[in-house]
From TrEMBL:
Name of the protein: Sulfate transport system ATP-binding protein
PANTHER family (UniProt xref): SPERMIDINE/PUTRESCINE IMPORT ATP-BINDING PROTEIN POTA, SPERMIDINE_PUTRESCINE IMPORT ATP-BINDING PROTEIN POTA
Record key words, sorted: ATP-binding, Cell membrane, Membrane, Nucleotide-binding, Sulfate transport, Translocase, Transport
Organism: Azospirillum picis
InterPro entries on file: AAA+_ATPase, ABC_SmlMolc_Importer, ABC_transporter-like_ATP-bd, ABC_transporter-like_CS, CysA_C, Mo/tungstate-bd_C_term_dom, P-loop_NTPase, Sulph_transpt1
Lineage of origin: Bacteria, Pseudomonadati, Pseudomonadota, Alphaproteobacteria, Rhodospirillales
SUPFAM superfamilies reported for this sequence: MOP-like (SSF50331), P-loop containing nucleoside triphosphate hydrolases (SSF52540)
UniProt cross-references to CDD domains, sorted A to Z: ABC_CysA_sulfate_importer
Keyword flag Transmembrane: no
Domain ABC transporter: start-end pairs: 3-237
Amino acid sequence: MNIDIQAITKRFGAYTALNSVDLRIGSGELVALLGPSGSGKTTLLRIIAGLETPDGGTVLFGGEDALQRHPRDRQVGFVFQHYALFRHMTVFDNVAFGLQVRPRSQRPAKSVIADRVNELLRLVQLDKLATRYPSQLSGGQRQRVALARALAIEPRVLLLDEPFGALDAKVRKELRRWLRHLHDAMGITSVFVTHDQEEALELADRVVVMSQGRIEQVGTPTEVYRQPATAFVYDFLGDANRIECRVEGGQVRLASQGQPLGGVSGQAGPAVVYVRPHDIELQPAGDDQATGTVRRVYEVGPLVRAEVDYAGTLLEVAVPADDRMPFRAGDRVRVVLRRGLVFPADRPDRPEPM
Ligand code: ATP
């Protein structure tokens, strides 16, 4: 079922947590709401769920006004960061809960509930642990119970708020893969909140990048990473070097010294260029002006990273470890920016590739 969010505004006192947000989520999509703390992700998710009422705007579920419906009647499954399982109930009863509390007229027969719960427990690979209590489970297992519980009511929409936030890196990765698999198998329209770019890029069909109660960009993981609409998106989606510069005669030049960094088609004026660490190349220093000084070289797993002082700007450089960085701290190097995005000061929303 598709979800249409139109001009949603939410205020808490004088503070505007969401500022006229528009978003269309297609049926069966897996969408990530990505942004820093306080950007409004959770508030938007809670409005979709009906746990929060907006001050303005509309939410449509399959073309119907969802705001008029009680949260209970929206058929939304919700998974929180902290499992929020019932401690005094077994895994089986936790999953069955949503069905068991339905009014008698809508409650399935006991055997139907049992079949459904067992099926879900098999799906989340917890069928062997059905009689355990939450305290007897690992964090990853509890979160899988929470998911099974959310799915038990056959939701039309699945909402997940930092579902793996409290888990360690390895379990997180495993559960991500598993959630994607589950989503593809069931095809439920799903929205999850995260502040982890890697999680959003790896898992989602589309990523909604939020900042200060607004949407900065909506796109596929490839689009938001490769064609960021704003400097914020560029910066938030990966390591970024920020270099103050000016555009002059088709060249990007360092603001401080006027060294040419690369060609660009934009108009003359001050600008900021963003460059990813792996888009910088270091070569043995020649006679040209584009030299920097290596400050530090260190290895992080598959990458060798270097910090290079380049005319007063500290650049982060990354190359695959098997290329071996033939430079050491103190070396003079020629800095080549292979690719970057130039944000003109007067038109920051119209970046130009360099
Ligand atoms: P996080 O990743 O930290 O959860 P978020 O992007 O999900 O952040 P929200 O929880 O949506 O952000 O909050 C957005 C803003 O609204 C924050 O500044 C927060 O302090 C404020 N806010 C949220 N709920 C309330 C509330 N009930 N009362 C007052 N302010 C609130």
